[in-house]
Amino acid sequence: MNSARSPRRILVTGTSSGFGRLIAQALANAGHVVFAGVRDARGRNARAFAELAAWRGPSGASLTPVEIDVTDEASVIACAEALEAAGGVDSVVQNAGVAAAGLVETFSTHAAQRLFDVNVFGPYRVLRALLPQMRRLGGGRVVYISSTDGREVMPFLGIYNATKAALESLAEGWRYELNAIGIQTVIVQPGTFPTTSILANLVQADAPDRAAAYGAFADAPNQLFAGIGAMVEAGQAPRLELVADAVLAAFAPEAPVRIVVDASGFDGAARINAVCDAVQSDLLGRFGMSGLEAVSREK
To answer: Using H for helix, E for strand and C for coil, what is the string for 159-226?
Structure first.
């Protein structure tokens, strides 16, 4: 494998707002070549696409916006082909995602599948499409924007929790295989970072009548998220830049496999990570596969 190169050539998905836009800008400001993925670039996100194209960083850094819908196989393949024609990418930040809140029973199977399609199958489609060019360019980095909810289980986020837990397992399993070809995996786990865009884009419960059977308890999710919304409105939500900083750290040569970003100071996910790391190490050792944990570090 080639030794580390700077700048990296990176696709960031889900950059129309929130984490994604800040991550793309931070990576560009750090000197990387960044392709900012936007869904529906000619429709609802046309303005965001234009803003990304026009953006310039403090030192003149810029981005190249590209259209990609992580839930659409044809869109993902077309984006991968366009990136290959532009010289290819060696790294990807898997940021595109959606959330849902409420009693699990109030979501139909279709609504639940929507979450899994974006949060789990989306990253799968994207990485699988990009791996040929990542191998051609020699190594690289896959950074997943997961969540502490992929380890912890927050009430009223049952389906979202499940998607992030699935993403954690997919990333971990794929990590062992990618280590063999010099591609590193880093999983960033933000805690609660509510934003107006996240709250506005929640996948809605499409069977709300099911809540009636829970009596007064049916209002518990609304009370919880009204409190979160008030925190956003009062300007008390954690700074999104903390997540962008964590992604920059994920591209450091000696980056750990997981980076927790929880401004509340609660270390639940970190504690679970430590236990899981020990269990995984023992498991691999038991089956004579300890070498799968090793990766060729950047020079």
So the answer is: HHHHHHHHHHHHHHHHHHHHHCCCEEEEEEEECCCCCHHHHHCCCCCCCHHHHHHHHHHHHHHHHHHH
Residues with a catalytic annotation lie at 160
DSSP state of 43: T
Q: pTM for the whole thing?
A: 0.93
Tokens describing residue 151: 């380890």
pLDDT digits (tens, 9 = 90+) for 12-70: 999 998 899 999 999 999 999 999 999 999 999 999 999 999 999 999 999 999 999 99
Domain ranges (residues) in the chain: 9-284
Topology adopted by domain 9-284: Rossmann fold (3.40.50)
CB distance 37 to 12 below 8 Å: yes
Least confident of 124-133, 163-172, 189-198: 189-198
CA-based end-to-end distance of the chain: 11
Pair 188, 243: CB distance under 8 Å = yes
- Tell me how far apart the alpha carbons of residues 70 and 78 are, in angstroms, rounded to a whole number: 11
Stated length of the chain: 299
pLDDT tens digits along 66-121: 999 999 999 999 999 999 999 999 999 999 999 998 999 999 999 999 999 999 99
How far apart CA 3 and CA 5 sit, in angstroms, is 6
**Phi, psi of 212, rounded to the nearest 5 degrees:** -60, -35
Partners of residue 92 on adjacent β-strands: 11, 142
